[in-house]
Every structure is written in structure tokens, then in C-alpha cells.
Amino acid sequence: MKHKHADLIHAWADGATIQCKSHENDKWEDVRTPAWGEHFFYRIKPEPKPDIVMYFEVRKPHGEILPNPFHNIKATYDGETGGLKLAEVIK
């Protein structure tokens, strides 16, 4: 009979980073030497999602109309959380 985690064991032996989550802990954590216990959940560590960059136009109230599109703000959002990481003024 094939071991429950056989495919992950092979991936780990080939250099993949393995993460573990137990029933008590709902957080995935990197493990260097997995025990491959039946009561744990294992997975190959997923690749991080890339950041998302968007450009915006911000105008002065009642100010001059700028040529469209005139992007003067660059916003970088975290690919994992979706939260704003950085906002830059483009001159």
C-alpha cells in the first residue's frame, strides 16, 4: 500500500519546501525534516503571488485639467494580502 504522503515525500527528497499544519494549529509552517505523521497535513510550499502595481490620476480640486491619461500616483499592492504596500508620487 502506498504511503499517505508518498508524493510529497518524493517532492521533498527532490528539494521542494514542505509545509505542515496540524489539527491544533491552523497555520501552515515550513518544516525542514517532516515527520510525515498521519495526523498532520502537508503540502508543497506555494509560490508567492506577485505584487500588483496600479497607476492613478489625482487632480487638485478646481485645478487645471491635465491631459488624460496623466498618471501621477503609483500604488503597489501586496500579492498575498491585497493590502497597499507602497504609494509613490510620479513627477
Break the fold down into its secondary structure elements and pairings.
Elements: H1 6-13, E1 18-22, E2 29-31, E3 40-44, E4 52-56, E5 73-77, E6 84-89
Antiparallel strand pairs: 1-2, 1-3, 4-5, 5-6
Brief description of this entry?
About 10% of the residues lie in helices and about 30% in strands.
H and E order: HEEEEEE
The DSSP helix count reads 1
Shape: rod-shaped
Radius of gyration: 23 Å
Distance between the termini: 65 Å
- Mean residue pLDDT: 88
Q: What order do the strands of the largest sheet run in, or round the barrel if closed?
A: 2-1-3
Based on secondary structure, the structural category is mainly beta
Task: Report the count of strand segments.
Answer: 6
Strand content: 25-35%
Helix content estimate: under 10%
Number of domains: 2
Low-confidence stretches: none
Largest sheet: 3 strands, antiparallel
